[in-house]
Amino acid sequence: MNKLPTIFVLFVLLIASPVSVFADLRVLIAKESSLPFELSPSNFSNSPSNFSNSVSNYSNSPSNFSNSPSFFSNSSSNFDNSRSGNRRLLFEQGGSCFFIGYYVWGDGGLINFFSSKGKRLFYSPSETDALFGGEDGKFSGTLATLKGEKVLVLTEKGQLALMKEGITLSSQPPDKPKGSTGQYPGGTSGHWIQENIDSGTMIILEDGSIWKIDPLDKIEAALWLPISNITIITSNNGSPGYDYLLINTNDGEKAHAKYLGNK
């Protein structure tokens, strides 16, 4: 995938400081391994193992109604959370900014982050600037200050959460029309599964290519194991936009898929 300049921004410029968010947030991407210790999950203050950060902590839990999209303050129907609001998550590509979500202050200083459709993607507890998955509590990024500007930095897990919502942080606009799909630049054979995400929802191959499985075929890919051999061919028989067929040559099972790019 032609990556957006994946913030190899000198992290010396990223200052770990309390982040008070009052306006739009620019979204940047980075590798978790590139984060300085002050911002990384290796720092216990930013770790999911710290109970104050855990999704099991009721304050952070999706079961807490104040964190739910059903709570009007958090709803995508709330004008303040719309593309015309002033607490948008904006991703810059090709000189243009794209609205990909919004954030809302919650109880006790918690910040919740939602997709543009209103799905809770991440949360950041008041005791840390770290970002955690809204459902699984995994470290997903951090709030930070870059050259005086408040930014939201998403690591690999954060990017995958957006991909599940159909937003790929790449050189292609994230709000491209439904049904359109990227063209896979790799070859047909010699591939193997690196990771099977959410029981066949998404497949990552050894070359870093990311594939969203056609929901109609998810049952076929649910039990595909890492290192299983995969052949990729084009196909016109999947749901609109799912223009490839992944063939697991270890067991002969097949699943239509959409190429989302490379991580």
Question: What can you see in these coordinates?
Answer:
By secondary structure, the chain is mostly beta strands. The protein has helices spanning 156-164, 218-221, and strands spanning 14-15, 25-29, 88-93, 96-105, 111-115, 120-124, 130-133, 139-146, 149-154, 191-197, 202-205, 209-213, 229-234, 244-248, 253-262. The chain has 2 domains: 11-164, no CATH class; 191-262, no CATH class. It contains 2 helices and 15 strands. The strands form 2 sheets. An 8-stranded mixed β-barrel has the order 2-3-4-5-6-7-8-9. A hairpin with a 3-residue loop joins strand 11 and strand 12 (209-213). The chain starts with 13 loop residues before the first strand and ends with a strand. The model is unreliable at 1-21 and 171-181 (pLDDT under 50).
Strand content: 25-35%
State the total count of DSSP E strands: 15
What is the strand arrangement across the widest sheet? 2-3-4-5-6-7-8-9
What is the alpha-carbon Rg in Å? Answer: 19 Å
Q: What about the largest sheet?
A: 8 strands, mixed, barrel
In quaternary terms, these chains amount to single chain
Shape: globular
Structural class: mainly beta
* H/E element order: EEEEEEEEEHEEEHEEE
Describe how the helices and strands are arranged.
Blueprint: E1 14-15, E2 25-29, E3 88-93, E4 96-105, E5 111-115, E6 120-124, E7 130-133, E8 139-146, E9 149-154, H1 156-164, E10 191-197, E11 202-205, E12 209-213, H2 218-221, E13 229-234, E14 244-248, E15 253-262
Parallel strand pairs: 2-3, 2-9
Antiparallel strand pairs: 1-8, 3-4, 4-5, 5-6, 6-7, 7-8, 8-9, 10-11, 10-13, 11-12, 12-15, 13-14, 14-15
